[in-house]
Structure formats: structure tokens, C-alpha cells
Amino acid sequence: MFNPKFIFTAMLAASMSTAATAETVETERHTVSITTLADGFTHPWGMAFLPNGNMLVTERSGNLYWLSEDGSKRKKISDVPEVVAQGQGGLLDVVVDPNYSENGWVYISYSEAAAEGKGNSTAVMRAKISDNSFTDKEVIFRQAPKYESTAHFGSRLAFSPEGHLYITLGDRYSRMEDAQTLDNHHGKIVRIWPDGSIPKDNPFVGNDQALDEIWSYGHRNVQGADIHPDTGELWSVEHGPQGGDEVNIPKAGKNYGWPEVTYGVDYGGAIISDVAVKEGTEQPFYYWVPSIATAGATFYTGDAFPEWKGDFFVAALKSSLVARLDLYEGRMMHEERLFEDAIDARIRDINQGPDGYLYLLTDQPNGAVIQIKPTD
Amino acid sequence: MFNPKFIFTAMLAASMSTAATAETVETERHTVSITTLADGFTHPWGMAFLPNGNMLVTERSGNLYWLSEDGSKRKKISDVPEVVAQGQGGLLDVVVDPNYSENGWVYISYSEAAAEGKGNSTAVMRAKISDNSFTDKEVIFRQAPKYESTAHFGSRLAFSPEGHLYITLGDRYSRMEDAQTLDNHHGKIVRIWPDGSIPKDNPFVGNDQALDEIWSYGHRNVQGADIHPDTGELWSVEHGPQGGDEVNIPKAGKNYGWPEVTYGVDYGGAIISDVAVKEGTEQPFYYWVPSIATAGATFYTGDAFPEWKGDFFVAALKSSLVARLDLYEGRMMHEERLFEDAIDARIRDINQGPDGYLYLLTDQPNGAVIQIKPTD
Fold first, then answer.
1. Which residue of A has its CA nearest to B269?
2. How far is CA B39 from CA A220, A232, B58, B341, B368, in A?
3. What's the gap in Å between the CA of A169 and the closest CA on chain B?
């Protein structure tokens, strides 16, 4: 997998320039330019903004890059952990601490091999970046149990306003039934403190039958998450089966139904459950049939796109689109599908930059960071 | 316009049989059959079920028909009022009184010419049907002012649980600004008692500057209406301009924004308003961009389609579809577009029959009553 084109040092990077060709696209409420800020990433998966506008970008194969604000310079961060880069696994999400300027913590989620024997699961590490290297590494969460599968690792990381870290996980595909039992982390969203300790008011603390980290359960494969800017609540986005991708607003201790309750069918058309509504399980906020293959998600809170303020944006792998959910007072009024014609790539993540622009990550062999700016 | 093919008497009708060929369509939650119950209607516009399952069907050209439950027999009702059958005008909606079995009242909306001079507007008449003839005719509402236009008459009729009659109207197109002033009925939804008298608690009663019939304003062309089965509230559906068809839940005295606030642009792309949200105006419950050309609408409350119970169905002229809005606890979770491939016709109205099946009306030169039944 060694490709010298993608090895950069600070010095080399200074001489690197990305051919940025902008395309203009009219959307319902804004006319925008689409600019490839940086490409040459191999299946990039997650991205995060540092306070100064520079970025961190993961490649699923296990690489972490620092990328300058304008995309022209990049540096590979060394000493990131070994990852199981198979199937859907690898180095996945990255976020920076809300107090990054003070503490320098960076958090990554990744597929981690079992220490002994077979199996793997999603882990979360925090570390600092010093001299382009990962230091002070602490594994703060390990999805249990380890299981031999290359599918459904989740995952996204999101900080609550109170400083909790939400970790969204997958059901490991062939262990989907585990999503309904509480003695494991399959098909769960967990909530921990950034040092890995468990919030005392987590919903299952004190329940001997349940793992203390669990925030909500009955999820399938959650690859999108953000915090609502007004309510502070977690919003999550999960891949459903064929049909049935969902937006949820996961509440403490609640059951989101998978695999007992779903709007989808299994790939190939087999019925998983013909039940879409069931007592004791929560209905989604919104769902897609057919699936668009939902990945990263973000609320838009900036000033660059005033007509998009408060809307929820969901990146999708299938159809190369971003779904804009036009929200008003907590209600879903309209879905606009953006960039279907303009971008021909699986869109794995979407983030808002400190500049108020939107940034997309295309999960391709030659993946890119794409900047969306208003031109109107 | 005389076409002997469409003239029926009770005797002739008995020998008439409609070739009913059913097509089976899989939808997300139900597999259904689509059967043409009766055709040969010229641009049918509205339909209503009598308590015994027989139907009344309007033709925009000015004819009203009684149709037997199985579609095999029809009779033309004589002595219906003269209508202005031009452009979008003509004989429009029909409903029967909630106490029809006791009082026999039938209500029609239609485009009525000015008594003197030019101009027309939507009027509502109630009458009884005796010996296939309209009798005891009373005009209970006249949209004011009369205006010379062939466009945007509305209209649908819907009874509240308390027995009010809601009449949904249009802005008469070139009089769109009237939708924002209260001294006229253009772009309004009005609420009256079935005898034409005005409910004392109508929102503008006692306001000298406003017409007492007005319930809500700022509407464009409202051709869909039904009462929410749980809340008893009116839900209305209006044609937006190019982009911006809306579902609203019109509240007493509220302003729904047209033409100051819209998600659409005028046909040809001209900006009507680039304001979508404005203080003092209400946001829609849901909206379509691009437009689907929304017409009739109904809540589904029957038992024949358990998975559709509580959902809101909207007929659309463009794309020949029915939009199913999957509602849960008052929230909009998902839109499914039904019959796009199976039906090639403008769908003007949708109703639930006493049998719990859904019935569509296709607004075509050879228009039909179509029955939707479950096969699963």
C-alpha cells in the first residue's frame, strides 16, 4: 500500500499545491461553489477542525493527516495505533476536545484487534499530537465483546455541551440480535467522560444486567452524529438494512428497535421484521426508503449560509449526495438532496468549518476534502 | 360538449359494465391492487361517498354523477347550477353532510359567474338529491369579490367535528396580493356553518376591516383538505408556485405568508419572494420543492391498510403520484411516493371509502374512479 505520492513532510508539503477547480451549483436556497481543497487521500473516513481552521483527516487504512486550512499542506501523524483495516474497519472518526486549545486532546475511533486470539471491535483512543506524532495515548473505550467480523463498526464521536463523549457503534452485522441485549456494546450508543470514566447518571448504572457505558440500544450501524445546537441533544444517523436508514434523537436508556423493528428489508429482499412500530421501542425522527447509505452528519450553525441555519445535513454514500433536512422548531419540513449531479463519489463525512463553510470527505480510492462555499 | 356515451339513466346504467383490470403494486408497507372502477368521466374533480358506499362524482365541465359502489351504474344529476367551466374553473368539490342520513344535504363548490357584468368566483351550494335532480338549492357562500380570471378557484370542502364547514379557496392568480388583506376572500380558507351563517368565534368576527368568514389567510390555491382524525384540526394542501407546494395546519386567524413568504419561484423562474421565513407568518408543516402539483388529500383512518393508519395522503397532478406522509405522534417521518409508475394520469382527488379502501380520481379527458385495495 506504500505510495510515495502520499508521503509528505512539512517541507515537502509547502511545495504541494492542489488544483482547486470550483464548480457552481444552484440549490434551493443558496448558490454554492464546490471546490476540491485536497485530494489524494485513500478512503478518508473522518475529519475534524482544529480551532485555527487546520484539519485532521483519517484514512481508513490507518493513516492520520494534519491538513492546512487551505488544503495545500499536509503532514502524516506517526504512532497512531494499529488498526484492523479490513472490510468496513480501520481508522474511522476523529474529533478534537472542546477544550483542545488548553488540553490538546484528540480522539480517534478505530477497529482494534483482540489482544489474544481472533476478533476485533471498535475502540476509542485519546492522544496529543506533538512533532507530528501521537503521544500520551490512552485507550478510553473498547467495544465488548471482540468478535470476528469486518462489518458494522460504526462509528462517530460527539461531545455533549456538558463534556460527555458519545460513541456511536455498530451491531457487527451477524451479531445483530445483540443490539437488543444490554450485556454487550453491539448496536449501542455509549456515553463516557473523555478520560474513559462512566457518568454516574448513565441510564444503566446500577443495573447488574447492563453495561454502564450504554446510553441507548437497538441500533444497527451508526455512522453519523452531532449535537443539536439549541437542545444539546444527540442526533444520530444509522445505516438501515435495504431501506430504513434512520435519523434518531437517542434518549437515555431507550430502545431504537433494531433488529426487531425496522422500515427496511435485508439486502436481497429478505424480511428481517415486518414490524415498523412496536411498544417499548422508539420511532425514528426521520427515515429513508430506499436507503441512501447514510454516513456523517452535522447541524449547520454558521453565518455563511443563512438559509441553512439550524438545518441537519447528512452525508450519503449511495447516490453521492448530501441530504439537507430543513428543520423548523424541531419539525422536519422538507428534504433537499444536494450535489447528486455535481459530485460523483461516496460522501463519508460532512463537517462545518470554523469559517462557516461546509466540508465533505469523499470515501474513494482517491478521496478528497471538498469545500462548499456560498457564491450568492 | 354533448357526448352521448356519458349520458346514463338508471335503466341504461344497469347494463353498463366497466372492464376492471387490476394491477398489483408493491409499496413499502402494503401490496395493493389498482382497479379502474369506472371511467368515461370528463375531467372529474371531486368525489364523495354516501353512507351506503355509493358515490357522487363531479366533472369540471359542470356535471354531477351518482355512481354505484361497484362502479357499474351511474346517473347524471340534473338541475345542478350553471358553472364557469373555463381554465381551472367549473364544478369542483362535493361533500355530503355528516348527518346526511337524516338531512340529505349535499354540498358542492363551483365557479360562479357574476350576476351582472364580468367576473366570477368560487361559490358553495347545498342541495338535496331527489329523483336524480338537485332540489332545495341554497347558495351558502360566495367568494368576494367576483373577478375576471380562469385560475385559482381552490377548492375543497371539509366538515369539522363540531360541524363547521371549511371552504378552501384560491388567490385568483393575478390577485395574489389580496391573500394578505382581509377585506376579500382571495387566498383564504373560510369557515361557516352549513346553512351559510357565521360561527361567532371565527377569528375576525368583530373586526371591521376583515370579512367574518375568514379562518386563515396568505394561501395561494388550496385544493386539498381533511380533518385530522385525532386532533380535529383542519389540514390543508396548496399549490405553491414553481416549488413550494405546502401542507399547512391552518390555525384561526393565522397568516400562511403567500405571496410574501414562499419556498417557490414563479413559473419561468422569476423570484416572487426570496423570503421563506418571516415573523408573523406561519411555516408549513411540510413542503415540496420541486412542486408535485398537490390536489386532494385525505387522512387514512381505516382498517384495510393497518400500516397506513394515521398517514396523510396527497394526490398530485404532476408525476401522477400520491404522496404518503408517514406521520407518528404528529411528526413527519417519511414521504413515500405511490403509483408513479403504475398510474399515468393527473390525480385530482383521493378519498377513503366506507369500506376502508382508497379511491382516486384521475383528472383526464377520460377520467376514472380508481380503487386501491390491499392484496397482502
1. A28
2. 48, 56, 13, 19, 4
3. 23
In the DSSP assignment, the letter for residue A242 is: B
Question: Is the Cβ–Cβ distance between B168 and B109 less than 8 Å?
Answer: no
Cis ω for the linkage preceding A259 (within 30 of 0): yes
Residues 6+ away with beta carbon under 8 Å from B207: B182
Closest residue in B to A307 (Cα) is B276
Is the sign of the CA dihedral B34, B39, B45, B48 positive or negative? negative
Spatial neighbors of A23 by CB under 8 A, at least 6 apart, are A33, A34, A35, A342
pLDDT of residue A60: 98
Question: For residue A36, what is its C-alpha cell?
Answer: 476540491
Chain B residues closer than 8 Å to A328 by CB? 277, 283
Q: Which residues contact A9 (CB under 8 A, 6 or more apart)?
A: A75
Beta bridge partners of A286: A247
The answer, for B332 touching chain A at a CB cutoff of 8 Å, is yes
B210-241 pLDDT per residue, tens: 999 999 999 999 999 999 999 999 999 999 88
Contact at CB, A333 and B285, closer than 8 angstroms: yes
Question: Which of A26, A324, A332 has the highest number of chain B CBs within 10 A, making it the mutation to test binding with B?
Answer: A332
Beta bridge partners of B41: B367
Distance of CA A55 to the CA centre of its chain: 15
Active site residue B152: yes
Query: Please, which residues 275-314 of chain B have a Cβ atom closer than 8 Å to chain A?
Result: 276-277, 283-289, 307
Residue type at position B136: D
Domain A23-374 is of which CATH architecture? 6 Propeller (2.120)
Nearest-by-CA chain B residue for A28: B289
- How many Cβ pairs within 8 Å bridge chains A and B? 49
Residues B26-40: pLDDT tens digits?
999 999 999 999 999
A264-295 residues labelled b (16+ CB within 10 A) or e (exposed): bbeeeeeebbeebeeeebbbbbbbbbebbbbb
Q: Report how far residue B328's alpha carbon sits from residue B38's, in angstroms, rounded to the nearest whole number.
A: 34
Put simply, the answer to whether A243 touches B28 (Cβ < 8 Å) is yes
**Cα end-to-end distance, chain B, whole Å:** 43
Rounded Cα distance, A287 and B141, in Å: 43
What's the CA gap between B213 and B188, in Å, rounded?
A: 9
A217, A179 Cβ separation under 8 angstroms = yes
**Is residue A240 classed exposed, middle or buried when 0-12, 13-18 and 19+ CB atoms within 10 A define those classes?**
buried
Name the pTM for this structure. Answer: 0.92
